[in-house]
Specification:
By secondary structure, the protein is mainly alpha-helical. 30% of the residues lie in helices and 0% in strands. The longest helix is centred in the N-terminal third of the chain and has 26 residues, at 18-43.
Length: 136
């Protein structure tokens, strides 16, 4: 029997050939068994640790430590706490709403450090006095 589109046998016809389906299943199982036996030879290296694989190839190199000239040495790293002081936050207000943005009202926690006078200068086109038609 053919399907409505004529593409091949219907499901009922394919299910009737139990012997062929059994042979296909046996071939699949046999192929999986062969792959299972062959896998350690082809891909077994993937199951071992990388360091175990290359430990013979890696040679330890004992190099003497080079001293840098004084002019090329970096100064010691200064902890960030020396430059930035972070004060303890005030206690969180007790309310059902939680006062979203409650720290912004306190001048001590203002994020605007330079005041309202530090505004943009109007963009590069305005500073260079280009006509608006020059910029698309």
């Amino acid at each position: 029997m053919a399907t409505a589109g004529g593409a091949g046998p219907s499901n009922r016809a394919a299910a009737c050939n139990i012997w062929a389906l059994d042979q296909i299943w046996k071939a699949r199982i046999a192929q999986e068994h062969r792959a299972y036996k062959k896998w350690p030879m082809d891909w077994g290296f993937m199951a071992t640790d990388y360091k175990d694989l290359v430990k013979e190839e890696i040679q330890t190199q004992d190099r003497p430590k080079l001293e840098m000239p004084e002019t090329l040495r970096l100064p010691p790293i200064t902890p960030i706490e020396k430059y930035i002081k972070v004060d303890k936050s005030p206690p969180f207000p007790r309310s059902s709403a939680g006062f979203i943005g409650w720290r912004s009202g306190d001048k001590g926690y203002n994020l605007e450090r330079y005041g309202g006078y530090a505004r943009g200068k109007g963009g590069l086109v305005h500073q260079l006095k280009w006509p608006n038609e020059a910029v698309d």
